[in-house]
Amino acid sequence: MLSIDSQEKNEAFAKSEKGNFPLLSDPEKQLADAYGVLASGGLYSKRWTFYIDRSGIIQYIDKSVDAESAGPDIVKRLDELGLSKPE
What we know:
Number of domains: 2
Strand order of the largest sheet: 1-2
Low-confidence stretches: none
Radius of gyration: 14 Å
Oligomer: single chain
Number of helices: 3
Helix content: 25-40%
Order of helices and strands: EHEHEEEEH
Shape: globular
Structural class: alpha+beta
Largest sheet: 2 strands, parallel
Mean pLDDT: 91
Strand content: 15-25%
């Protein structure tokens, strides 16, 4: 997960949500800009999900992420792309 918030804010978020996944802080917005997800003049980032294979190739971009169903949606898409099982 990539966030344009500070590391401190992201750590507090991860702790409050009991997150157990990597959360990259990008307060300078360099990666968000490179992936084209900055919105409203860089005030926030779009909620997109990039599915990247083990070779680093983007296989799919979900530009219609629904926060309520994101978890199951991600699992389904990983299965559809054949990316859900470790090698």
